Amino acid sequence: MHRLKQLVGRSPVVLWRSGSLPPCVSQSVRLQTQGPMEQFGLKRFSTAEATAETRDAGKLREKILTMETLNPHVKAVEYAVRGPIVIKAGDIERRLQQGVKQPFTEVIKANIGDAHAMGQQPITFLRQVVALCCFPELLDSPAFPDDAKQRAQRILQGCGGHSLGSYSASQGVECIRQDIAAYIEQRDQGIPADWNNIYLTTGASDGIMSILKLLVSGQGSSRTGVMIPIPQYPLYSAAISELEAVQINYYLDEANCWALDIGELRRAYRAAKQHCQPRVLCIINPGNPTGQVQSKKCIEEVLHFAYEENLFVMSDEVYQDNVYSPDCQFHSFKKVLYEMGPEYSSSVELASFHSTSKGYTGECGFRGGYMEILNMDPEVKAQLVKLLSVRLCPPVSGQAAMDVIVNPPRRHEASYTQFTKEKNSVLGALAEKAKMTEQILNSVPGMKCNPVQGAMYAFPQIFIPPRAVQELGHAHRALQRLNEAARRTKLICLSADFMKNINRAFQLLLN
């Protein structure tokens, strides 16, 4: 405050360049300067007078941020998961709530894997621990089991001021990082995990974006290329557009249950080398939106390819608990990497991601997640910590939820029976729905769907009859003629984006 008074006394112009000061500030300035503002050459007038003078001068203030001045990389971002169709669905939903009659009574949003929004019930133990962390007074309540209280107390002891409302370290609460490392070590059957390589994130998406920021560099033909599977989760293409990296598509083999073919990886890599520098290989296992679970042999081939071509591997493993096919098993990329021997495990750079949003908990709203980083240069790791520090820390409540997932009740603890029952119920229901979805889609004429081995999605193929394709071609040409006529007559004009999307749709259908 003393410093502020000094500044006000010396230079009132710096604090308020135009218009009038709020009454309390104006009075403060007069007291400090021992006189009215007019004697310092400042004109006082009301907001209305200022507006009138501006208008009289014929100068209307232009907006700084317009579609013309907007960052072009933001405009290039496309994220269909929350795109125009979802916005339209929200409008319809609001009209239903207002009593507008429709030939249906509800809108079912199947655009995103939001389990609780679709009726999945939360896991009791997770909510108990988070509730205790949020309101520690409940630790004295007999309504909560001892194992939930013990976990909550441990988490709170790791928080500043023993409060979930404090900032954590940018990498996350230390004891939670230690619990994650212990979980990974158990999951991977004894392969060691160092908690110093664990970073808590705001969902898996935050971690993926942070790693891509580190990797994208260069100009022209040396610009970073990022290899992503097609079909893909739109986060990847959106992040690549925002960071102005080069997207390298490799296509999953639909005829082989969406398997990842190493020959296709090599084809995509060689083609991309002509115009960029491929540096990153992104894997989603189990697959989103294709539902495949990669075999151990496939993972070995992928890691060998990354080793040969010196690629940084990003393994999105948020659906690691969602495996439904009895013939499939989840293998972490880290475990397979270590089993390939020290030549690979000590050199291939790997970032693996997990989240509270999927699995059997479906806690999307907590925005909890983590990433494990292997073989990253120590100086680059310091830069990563700096980058993470800019956003201070992930939500600490989400960190607490993540801790419960990696540190669930054990056999001898009070909550084990109920927890196991709820977990198996959720995963069993998802497996049943996966099978049912596959069967229903395959029963529809003109549709074909591969078995849903894991994750939470099916990606069917739709066969369009030749006559329908022909009619669509006629409609496409008619739309083009209409748009051209509109441009000439200036009566109406379809937007360029609309025509671009129409063209894209018809090309997909006709090819």
UniProtKB/TrEMBL annotation:
It is an enzyme of class 2 (transferase). Its cofactor is pyridoxal 5'-phosphate. The keyword Cell cycle does not apply. GO terms for molecular function: L-alanine:2-oxoglutarate aminotransferase activity; pyridoxal phosphate binding. Residues 147-460 form the Aminotransferase class I/classII large domain. Its EC number is 2.6.1.2. The keyword Transferase applies. Homodimer. Belongs to the class-I pyridoxal-phosphate-dependent aminotransferase family. Alanine aminotransferase subfamily. This is alanine transaminase. It comes from Myripristis murdjan (pinecone soldierfish).
